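for the record, two folds in this file. i put them one after another cuz i was lazy. first one right below, seq on top, structure tokens after. the second one comes after a little note so u can tell where it starts
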Amino acid sequence: MVELLCTVIVIDNLFIILKINSMSIFLLFQTDSWKSKASRVFFGAFDSRAKALDYAKYNDLYWYNSEVVVVEVILNQFEKFSKCLVFS
């Protein structure tokens, strides 16, 4: 079974794409109580925020001195950047 990621209309054997649905993944991190980026530990990538939070609860990632951060990342989103750093 193939999941459609866009809305398509077919008129006289001509495919017209109306809207491309954006896909998101949710990255799960455990961090200190101040939520600093330097203290983040990666625990997985999930297809929904609810699954990421369920995984965190099941694996006891919540402690008195730590927090859980879920970051949403949108896939296939292209943006124009005014400045770009290239490292070689």
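(here's the note) second protein begins now
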Amino acid sequence: MVFAIGLLTFATAASTAPQRDICDLGRAVVRDLPRPVQASSQGGVFVDDDASRPSLLTVCPELRKALPPGYTIAKQEDRERANIAVPTEGVHFLTATLYTIGIPTFAADGRSATVAWSYVCTGLCGATLVSRYVRSATGWHLDGEPQVTSVS
């Protein structure tokens, strides 16, 4: 339950940056998603773009086409499977891992930004993290490793 509260906290934060800046950074964020380790025969790895909750993909829908190999856009059934905390014994279903990417928060000078993101997966697994990005002459780049803020 604590995990869900953390997810709602960052997912509703709005950015005052222009949409163009958000989406430019968003291309780097999507590029930097962890490589999926789950075989497609076991379920899937999904990115949430639920329009009822603000997120990077709801602000920048064109990023849906830029997802790395192994990721697909989540449907309602994928969200439900990812949120099964305790599987029912004897009932077989495909597992799911669901990533949600928050809207970036930019520093006042526009040279850096943080992005909160999370994942949940079938069977009480998940985490929320924050990644810091810096802007250089060649674009946005991840600055260090993502910092874990909560884990389940």
